[in-house]
């Protein structure tokens, strides 16, 4: 932990505290007056000290405080007013207000003797004037005399030592991690697709599932995305990349992005946190993704089943994907379980094209419940049953797209592109 004690002190009171505090923070602590202070970015913990002049720190320290954004800070001041007065609290609050990006771990107001010249000047003012001499002032000035004393110094040392102990040391530079955030599947065999995709990634990721249903079904064995990020944060990781294991930029992706927001807080968040965009979200990604998907397709009619969204809000992405796929081979088609590209809408087209034989494949990252039941199930409502009832002979390739080696490489490239 790199620590700095920086102060402004016209008559030496605050400087005494500053020296004592710096001594207590250890031999590596830097001590400097505001005029000569090193760049604040070098420090994790900065203790700012000042003598109060007309309610504020002087200009030099003030501008240093406004510039500095240490992760942790402490404030100490000396003043003529009583340290437990409202005035003292206001002065501390003003200083704290100058450090919005820092966690302030210690605040100390301490009596500071008025310089003898100042006392003489106050005595010379006419009685009744704003800072003139009267009995109350005489008592206050007498109380401040001799401060900061040995007790003040030792109190300040204890307070700042305890504050430093509360500051979490920064992680080793470059402590990074990757999270693979998949939707999840409760189908054991389907999980191999995730294993395969993850084996191609530049580093071994921490796996997270966004589906609460799947997480519950697996007994909490795989964390949620926030759970995974929290785990990494507590391990001291500060740079995180997230692979968004989703195909379309729909509701799931928005939820995933909102899960990340809490971890972007400038005080408590990661130093960097980036996330990949889904393959169907931009034309350039779509093309590279389809290059990967089509790399091993047979030169024969194929019908993919994607997911889609019930109210059709992701149709435009699947429509674009279907149009692009047909450019590779007009016999390769894409429908969805939900939304506008249902089997009902595709069947007439298949019949019109005279398709007699089809290979069915999930356009899903893993061959989970939708692939096993909605696509290939024996129930009359499955796509296979409906197509066969319509006279089209079907074979099924039950493999999630994440298990296609070229698709796994596509995801690895997306992670690498995050920089
Ligand atoms: C010109 C002047 C203005 C001051 N203004 C205040 C003030 O607004 N509030 C206060 O409590 N004390 C005030 N003081 C007292 C100083 O804050 C106190 O003596 C402090 O310990 C000085 O710190 P330093 O020796 O580190 O400069 C003032 C003193 C002087 C000389």
UniProtKB/TrEMBL annotation:
Could you provide one GO biological process annotation from this protein's UniProt record? anaerobic cobalamin biosynthetic process
Recorded GO molecular functions are:
electron transfer activity; FMN binding; sirohydrochlorin cobaltochelatase activity
Matching entries from Pfam families are given as: CbiK (PF06180), Flavodoxin_3 (PF12641)
Domain Flavodoxin-like, first and last residues per copy: 4-160
Cofactor dependency: FMN
List membrane-spanning regions: none
For this entry, the protein name equals Cobalamin biosynthesis Co2+ chelatase CbiK
């Amino acid at each position: 932990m790199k620590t700095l004690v920086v102060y402004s002190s016209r008559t030496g009171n605050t400087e005494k505290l500053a020296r004592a505090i710096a001594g207590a923070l250890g031999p590596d602590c830097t001590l400097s007056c505001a005029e000569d202070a090193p760049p604040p970015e070098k420090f994790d913990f900065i203790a700012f000290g000042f003598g109060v002049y007309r309610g504020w720190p002087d200009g030099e320290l003030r501008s240093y405080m406004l510039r500095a954004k240490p992760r942790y800070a402490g404030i100490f001041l000396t003043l003529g007013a009583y340290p437990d007065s409202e005035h003292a609290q206001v002065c501390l609050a003003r200083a704290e207000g100058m450090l919005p990006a820092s966690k302030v771990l210690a605040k100390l107001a301490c009596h500071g003797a008025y310089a003898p010249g100042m006392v003489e000047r106050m005595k010379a003012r006419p009685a009744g004037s704003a800072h003139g001499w009267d009995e109350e002032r005489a008592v206050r000035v007498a109380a401040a005399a001799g401060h900061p004393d040995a007790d003040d110094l030792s109190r300040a040392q204890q307070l700042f030592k305890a504050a430093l102990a509360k500051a979490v040391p920064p992680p080793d530079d470059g402590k990074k991690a990757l999270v693979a955030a998949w939707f999840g599947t409760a189908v054991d065999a389907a999980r191999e697709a995730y294993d395969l995709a993850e084996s191609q990634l530049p580093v071994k990721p921490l796996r997270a599932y966004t589906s609460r249903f799947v997480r519950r079904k697996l007994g909490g064995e795989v964390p949620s995305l926030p759970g995974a990020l929290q785990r990494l944060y507590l391990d001291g990781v500060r740079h995180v990349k997230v692979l968004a294991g989703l195909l379309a930029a729909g509701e799931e992706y928005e939820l995933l992005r909102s899960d990340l927001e809490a971890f972007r807080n400038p005080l408590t968040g990661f130093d960097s946190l980036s996330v990949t965009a889904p393959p169907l979200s931009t034309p350039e990604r779509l093309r590279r993704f389809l290059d990967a998907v089509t790399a091993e397709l047979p030169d024969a009619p194929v019908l993919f089943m994607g997911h889609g969204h019930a109210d059709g809000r992701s149709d435009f992405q699947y429509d674009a994907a279907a149009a692009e796929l047909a450019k590779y081979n007009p016999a390769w088609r894409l429908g969805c379980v939900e939304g506008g590209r249902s089997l009902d809408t595709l069947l007439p087209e298949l019949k019109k094209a005279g398709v007699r034989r089809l290979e069915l494949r999930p356009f899903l990252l893993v061959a989970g419940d939708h692939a096993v039941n909605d696509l290939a199930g024996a129930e009359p409502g499955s796509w296979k049953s409906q197509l066969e009832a319509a006279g089209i002979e079907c074979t099924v390739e039950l493999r999630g797209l994440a298990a296609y080696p070229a698709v796994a490489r596509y995801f690895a490239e997306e992670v690498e592109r995050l920089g």
